[in-house]
């Protein structure tokens, strides 16, 4: 069982502001601990299964945050964006405050599964090329996808900035113009450039899987959800199996 921690420290760790601000939230009766209004920011509280309510919104305590997000189009994956709004503007403010980062970015026009966390080791483990974690992309093309193109993707294509070939590790034709392709690397605009290299084009790109984690069918575009112990176990199996 984890050691109880002071409420002020808990609120700070979750991204609710400076320690002073977190104390003031408690003094202003704006914090509930497991449904009961808290009075003392110094009170030590067990964190296991803890549900806070801050300014009227419930918040599950997580020592480290791991979330799955269904990215909509026309959002950038960085904190400091250039042309489009940031995906972080769609997430609760405490996530930004506590420095959550994407586990591998998607282009602004790509949609689908993003994992986001403030656990640096987890992010490194999931993104290091050595681990060969498969990512599945659903690719919609304007021109019909041919068997020749699929063979070419599986046998490897050369992209212009690197002499090492880039492979699809699996391809499943979903329909004439839709291909589900798995890749293990994360080179710049990799899928778009691979499709261009085999003479087709990406009209729409959507990520559906990272390792053993599949986008939940009920996670609507623009929505996020916590990853729990079982999800993380599943993800770490995709890493440790390599
Ligand atoms: N490959 C791309 O070309 N774009 C993405 O967003 C992800 C993979």
UniProtKB/TrEMBL annotation:
Keyword terms, alphabetized: Isomerase, RNA-binding
Pfam annotation, one family: PseudoU_synth_2
EC number: 5.4.99.-
Enzyme class: isomerase
GO molecular function: 16S rRNA pseudouridine(516) synthase activity; RNA binding
Substrates-to-products reaction catalysed: uridine(516) in 16S rRNA = pseudouridine(516) in 16S rRNA
Any Gene Ontology biological process: pseudouridine synthesis
Keyword RNA-binding attributed: yes
Record-annotated Pseudouridine synthase RsuA/RluA-like domain positions: 66-197
Homology family: Belongs to the pseudouridine synthase RsuA family.
Function: Responsible for synthesis of pseudouridine from uracil-516 in 16S ribosomal RNA.
PANTHER family attached to this UniProt entry: PSEUDOURIDINE SYNTHASE, PSEUDOURIDINE SYNTHASE FAMILY PROTEIN-RELATED
Full protein name: Pseudouridine synthase
């Amino acid at each position: 069982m984890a050691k109880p921690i002071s409420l002020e420290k808990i609120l700070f760790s979750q991204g609710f502001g400076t320690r002073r601000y977190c104390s003031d939230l408690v003094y202003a009766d704006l914090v509930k601990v497991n449904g009961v209004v808290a009075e003392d920011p110094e009170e030590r509280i067990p964190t296991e299964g803890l549900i806070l309510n801050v300014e009227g919104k419930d918040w599950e305590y997580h020592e480290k945050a791991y979330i799955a997000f269904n990215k909509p189009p026309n959002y950038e994956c960085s904190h400091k964006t250039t042309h489009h709004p940031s995906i972080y503007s769609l997430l609760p403010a405490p996530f930004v405050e506590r420095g959550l980062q994407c586990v591998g970015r998607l282009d602004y026009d790509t949609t689908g599964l993003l994992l986001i966390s403030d656990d640096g080791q987890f992010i490194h483990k999931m993104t290091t090329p050595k681990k060969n974690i498969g990512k599945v992309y659903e690719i919609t093309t304007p021109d019909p996808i041919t068997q020749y193109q699929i063979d070419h993707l599986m046998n490897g294509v050369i992209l212009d900035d690197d002499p090492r070939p880039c492979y699809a590790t699996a391809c499943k034709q979903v329909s004439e113009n839709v291909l589900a392709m798995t890749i293990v690397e994360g080179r710049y605009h990799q899928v778009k450039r691979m499709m261009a290299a085999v003479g087709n084009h990406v009209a729409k790109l959507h990520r559906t899987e990272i390792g053993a984690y599949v986008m939940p069918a009920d996670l609507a575009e623009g929505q996020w959800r916590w990853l729990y112990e079982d999800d993380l176990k599943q993800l770490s199996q995709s890493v440790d199996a390599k």
